[in-house]
Specification:
about 375 residues; alpha+beta; seven-stranded mixed beta sheet; 10 helices; globular
Length: about 375
Amino acid sequence: MNTVLAPAAVQDIAELRQLYFDVYGHGYPVPLGSDPAVMRRLITDGSAHWLTARTDRGGLVGSAVVQTDPGSRVGKLVGLAVHPGHRGGGLASVLTGAVCEEAFGSGRLDSVYATVRVVTEGPQHVVLRNGFRPLGLMPNAVEVEGCESLALFARYADGVLERRAPVERVPERLAALLSAASSGVGIGFGTPEPIATRPALPSAAGAEPIELIAASSFVRRRFLERVPDAGDRFFPLHTPNAVLVAADGRFEAYADLDPVANSCALIAVHPRPAAVSGALEALISVVTRAGADYTETLLPLADTEALEVFLASGFVPSAVYPAMRRVGDRFHDYVVLSRTSRQIDFRTTAVSALLQPYLSAYLSAWTATYLPLHEVSR
């Protein structure tokens, strides 16, 4: 059956909600597919490229969106859905290719990323066929049909990867991840000088308490006041709705808490990321009590001090995003570090051959973080 692609319109919202329900049931953790107000905004305010697919009889059978963050020139492929009765004909790949071509055609994006479920290999092959490259694996990252892991992929505009700023030295625990990325992305990371990561910090019993403030409007205003430099707020397509404050006032950590997905993104720390040194255990305890079993943060590959602080507190290198941020005419690499309070179970994870090196890298880093050397050597 032939399908016709067209931009989403406000009058499509009811059918789109039904499509996402048919595909995901009640488990879809993104308001794009369930909240009419969010859907209307994305369709009308110019912040997204949204394509729908209809049959020649008019039935809506597919949807794909690239959300954009113009300030960062980074987009995200989200909301890819094909009705169960129309799978197997390549529609997901057609939608993905078309919406990405439209997004890059605007000239306002340097890269588009996608976080792909790994319960089956199908979604991985869809993005790979459309020019996306694998960047890493994030275990327990989202609650969909139970706790699931996600794979990170990105597609780049022409010439972006050739203009990366070099990084000379990185913490030793990033070596396996960067090795996987060198082959998976097809680029080099030079020959960085390894830096031995300090031993993991013990549980911070008796540490200064952390206070959580979850008043979203106040948090957004405070965030802009305390972190006025846009470069220090670099976490595309995330807006803080909570702030975690040290009782002694030495830092404020801004977070995007998502109770539906059971996840938390640490967006920025004032006055600097390394200020949370010695307090991350207490901070994670507060985040976990707030309903987030998974926490991630995004740090520049060049920020050795901050990377060492998070690595020493149980965060595991999960993904690398080369050329993520443009500064002048150069592009800077970033690293995703994650931590989960749930047991990690890869038995239901379908990892394609191109993701296998990232799985091995994660397991290696997790072992180095959580298993004493003498236990591993037995």
